[in-house]
Amino acid sequence: MSQENVSPPELPVVWRPRKGRVVAYGFAGLIVVGAVVLAILLPPPFTVVDKVAMVVLGAAVAGVLHLLGRCRVEADETGVTLVNALRVHRYEWPEVLAVTLTDSEPWAKIDFTDGATIGAMGLQGSEKERTVQQVRQLAALIRERGEARDDDGHGGRAGDDG
Questions:
Q1: What is the C-alpha to C-alpha distance for residues 35 and 59, in angstroms, rounded to an integer?
Q2: Residue 155 CB contacts under 8 Å (≥ 6 apart), including other chains
Q3: In this structure, are residues 71 and 16 in contact, taking their beta carbons and an 8 Å threshold?
Q4: Of 3, 25, 30, 106, which has fewest CB within 10 angstroms of its CB?
């Protein structure tokens, strides 16, 4: 299926990886439960402080895994939000130029009019065909909404004559 044949999805839409979330939150839960069980079963000479520290460490690791599990790309009527592990980026549609996904990259990349190219961790290449379809949907939205509008509201890239 070519990109041109994909119609834009209904807005708002959220794209997020399945496998990455299952792995991140699965391990986070396992680590927290393991830390609590270990803290309960720790024999003397471990103190209450040691046991609390064990649970806090498990919660901290789970927090880092949450940062990976929360990654997503959201599109609404006004623009795109990229929620990556450490940062959230918000761009209006006229600022979005293109989305690309190559086999050698772990996730899709989105190009913006300010010259920035930002990895979209919510569109992970490891999910192959699912991510290809999501990237095609986002590309269709960019074609429909992402081009800079001229003063009379017509589409066209900045600097285009038509």
A1: 8
A2: 147, 149
A3: yes
A4: 106
Q: How many CB atoms lie within 10 A of CB 20?
A: 19
Are the C-beta atoms of 149 and 94 separated by less than 8 Å?
yes
**Structure tokens of 99?**
């989305």
The CA–CA distances, whole Å, from 72 to 91, 134, 162 equal: 14, 11, 35
pLDDT of residue 86: 96
Q: How confident is the model at residue 103 (pLDDT cuts 50, 70, 90)?
A: confident
Give the pLDDT band of residue 147 (cuts 50, 70, 90): low
**Average pLDDT of the residues in 55-82:** 97
Helix locations, 1-107, DSSP H: 18-41, 48-69
Q: CA distances (Å), 69 to each of 16, 28, 108, in order?
A: 9, 10, 16
Q: Is the pLDDT of residue 117 over 70?
A: yes
User: How high is the mean pLDDT of the chain?
Assistant: 89
Side-chain-side CA neighbours of residue 17 (13 Å)? 27
pTM of the model: 0.82
What three-state secondary structure class fits 79? strand
Residue 125 gets which letter from DSSP? G
Question: Which element (helix H / strand E) includes 118?
Answer: strand 117-124
